[in-house]
Amino acid sequence: MSHSSPAEQSTSARTHYRICPLCEACCGLEIQTRGAGKTGRVVAIRGAANDVLSGGYLCPKAVALKDLHEDPDRVRTPLVRREGRFVPVSWDEAFAEVERRLVPLIEERGRDAVAVAVGNPSAHKMGALLYFSRLAKALGTKNVYSASTLDQMPKQLANGWMFGHWLSMPIPDIPRTQWLLVIGANPMVSNGSLWTVPDFRGKAKGLRGRGGKLIVIDPRRTETAAVADEHHFIRPGADVFLLAGMVHTLFAEALVRPGRIEPHLAGIEAVREATLPFVPERVAARCGIEAGTIRRLARELAAAPKAAVYGRLGTCTQRFGTLASWLIEVLNALSGHLDEPGGAMFAKAAAFADNTQGPPGKGRGITTGRHASRVSGAPEVWGELPMTCLAEEIETPGGGQVRALITVASNPVLSAPGGPRLAAALAGLDFMVSVDIYVNETTRHADVILPGQSPLEHSHYDVAFPQFSWRNQARFSEAVFEPAAGHLPEWQVLLKLAAIARGLGARADANVLDDEALAADLRKHAGERAPSMMEALSPLRGPERLLELALRSGPYGDGFGARPGGLTLAQVRAASGAGGGVDLGELQPRIPEMLRTPSGKVELAPPACLRDLAHALAALDEPAPELVVIGRRDVRSNNSWMHNLPTLAKGPERCTLLVHPSDAAARGLVDGSPAQLAGAGRTVQVIVQVDPGSMPGVVCLPHGWGHGEPGTAMGVAAERPGANLNALLEPSARDPLSGNSVLSGGPVSLKATVPG
Fold first, then answer.
1. Whole-model pTM?
2. CATH number, domain containing residue 662
3. What pLDDT band is residue 56 in, cutting at 50, 70 and 90?
């Protein structure tokens, strides 16, 4: 074995395996670096050819990891606001400031006076995701908010009611599917959303190559629709009527054949009765889809040997989002394609999946509405209140008024409806702390900013995404670079904030707190085995220790010696270090063992869904607005913080308003015209892009733009600020079951900008 000098090591290239943290595809990457420490640099990023999930695929976002790591705008040291500006301070000074201002506020006003909000990037940081709940628990507040109520809570709620857990997520078994219906989703851009499926293009090509059929229902001819066999426009917000019409057809034409899982289904007759009024001929006009097409889609679904229905963002971000999410799985179940190879199946994650823990086949199910928001009375769902309730909770005086806020990787001023109102509310808080890597439109209002680490500076395991991955697997990333000396990882930051909230002081030792919390959890769940398990876990710390516990206790694990040869973190580490991870095989049927409902059955007819379906029926004949707006995402700009990365920001302007030629002509607009788009009492300036792929009466503006506000420090994003779609949406418009914001189908007006 040859040895190199330190100087040679610092200049020679090294290759690291890394799970991409920039979207739900979670592709495996090979990152080539030179140097170490502060001089370390990324020199190349490519797909990891042996990765068991992504097989070498990567999209343009992955290459931008270099930009993110090296971004001069990224916050690298704690900041405290003094005399109106941010001043760099030590970590001790920052936590002392939090203690000085937060503790008296809690003592005077109570725990509900503090709100906490967490955003999308936390899902891609193992430490942030595993330890955020400890902060929320320590705060003891009812005011918990997350990005889930902006785009996915309807799907989680429907699945919780039907299968017994929020993350029991049926996904298309795409390697074996012969017929796939995609509604309100664009996996060509997202590579799956609540469906981790890197290289959807390749998998869709494989589906069609074996004689399969891909059908897309969407108000826009999306990138996915462009490669499909069929595309049908649908009026925004009408998905519930299409889906109910298809369910009606299955019953009316005696096509209900659940197959193997029929003994495990409850509520078939209730669904039949509830969908009787939704005759395709009645719903067709509201959908904008002919009755014959609705019937044909139902027949094809029933006749296909291996088929699945999948819906995502467009089906969630509407008034009847929970109903649409529910009816998608009803269709899969009634047609015999739920939990069948080639149909809608359940992943079996190696760690952290509640539907692999405890006695199989039955459980407590889920509970909602344990409390409600103080002002609007919106019900709690999975421990959260709707993000769009936050501004009114800050503004409205009275007991429980929010006077302090802690945000974790969250930018709701851009990502949530009513952003300008929220920004004004944040400016009036008594105290605000942000754990974030940028001074953005939200964190500019903070009194203290505690910087997160670069994704390349910490180890990582996907906590949530294997629960809805197209293939069962386990992968682990080592840190590529060492963080700067003294830069705390997010899990320790969250524990320190939790300690302050508990009255333990700013100097509390995060490692001691972590030991105490783990020991208490083991005593509660492992009983007499707790001491031996704690000893076995002792070589590790923080999130890696929790991962070791989850892997060894999981369905493939060694059970701490009870199942010799079973999975451990050491095994996953070794397999991932070789560039691929552990392949745990294709999806397998899991009903009934994965069910966690009190009845032990799939609940096809949740009472709340049946009640709300009556509301949908009443809304069926409501007149449609003349013009509505929907959102979109680009593969290069899925979230607002990606707009500051030069690799992704370069090229053509992406924040344009897509307008059908007839709608443009009626308003005297041409390609490139400046225009005013108005909604919810506000107006934004847009650039028109005439697009025959947009449905007449529907305009489309991308999500997450509106940069350049005073006090922000994102230079690249400010060069192309774009227009804030969410400023035009009514904050009070929500799906009443899940609290999810209505981001699709909001009424707007459009006119040319008057010169001068």
1. 0.96
2. 2.40.40.20
3. very high
Final residue of a structural domain among 344, 359, 374:
359
What average pLDDT does this structure show over 171-182?
A: 98
What CATH number did the domain enclosing 168 receive? 3.40.228.10
Cα–Cα distance list, 555 to 66, 169, 558, 594 (Å): 36, 17, 9, 11
Q: Determine contact, residues 155/325, Cβ cutoff 8 Å.
A: yes
- 379 within a domain of the structure (yes/no): no
Pairwise CA distance, residues 593 & 264, whole Å: 11
Residue 692, classified by CB atoms within 10 Å of its CB into exposed (0-12), middle (13-18) or buried (19+), is: exposed
What is the three-state SS of 67-126? HHHHCCCCCCCCEEEECCEEEECCHHHHHHHHHHHHHHHHHHHCHHHEEEEECHHHHHCH
Query: Beta strand pairing status for 682-690 and 344-345?
Result: unpaired
- For residue range 502-529, list pLDDT tens digits in order: 999 999 999 999 999 999 999 999 999 9
Exposure b/e, 100-113, CB count within 10 A at least 16 = b: ebbbebbeebeebb
CA atoms within 13 A on the CB side of 719: 10
**Cα→Cα distances 90→407, 409, 450, 491, Å:** 20, 20, 10, 18
Separation between Cα atoms, residue 696 and residue 414, nearest integer Å? 27
Fill in the amino acid letter for 586: E
**Ramachandran area for residue 698 (φ above 0: left; ψ -120 to 50: alpha; else beta):** beta
Parallel, antiparallel or unpaired: strands 307-311 and 179-183: parallel
Question: Hunting for tokens 């942000």 — which residue is that?
Answer: 434
Tell me how far apart the alpha carbons of residues 438 and 72 are, in angstroms, rounded to a whole number. 10
Phi, psi of 746 (to 5 degrees): -70, 135
By C-alpha distance, which of 4, 732, 756, 15 is closest to 389?
732
Phi and psi (nearest 5°) for 368? -130, 170
Host domain of residue 740: 625-752
| Start-to-end CA span in the chain (Å) | 73
Give the chain's domain count. Answer: 2
- In the numeric block, the tokens 């976002």 are attached to 61
DSSP label at residue 741: B
- The H or E element that residue 322 is part of is helix 321-334
pLDDT digits (tens, 9 = 90+) for 452-488: 999 999 999 999 999 999 999 999 999 999 999 999 9
Write down which residue in 318, 335, 359 finishes a domain. Answer: 359
The answer to whether residue 386 is domain-embedded is no
Q: 377-409, pLDDT tens digit by residue?
A: 999 999 999 999 999 999 999 999 999 999 999
Using CA atoms, how far residue 679 sits from 39, 202, 413, 474, 743, in Å, is 49, 39, 17, 45, 12
Cα–Cα distance measured from residue 314 to residue 218, given in angstroms and rounded to the nearest whole number: 8
CA dist., res. 610 & res. 599, Å (int): 18
Tokens 């042996």 — which residue? 50
Tell me the residue type at 737: L
| Residue 239 included in any domain | yes
Buried b (16+ CB within 10 A) or exposed e, 200-220: bbebbeebeeeebbbbbbbbb
State the Cα angle at 146 between 141 and 151, rounded to 5°. 150
Beta-carbon count within 10 A of 231 CB: 19
Dist CA 548 CA 351 (whole Å): 9
Q: What is the CA radius of gyration of the chain?
A: 25
Residue 280 is assigned to a structural domain of this protein = yes
Pairing of the two strands 13-19 and 28-34: antiparallel
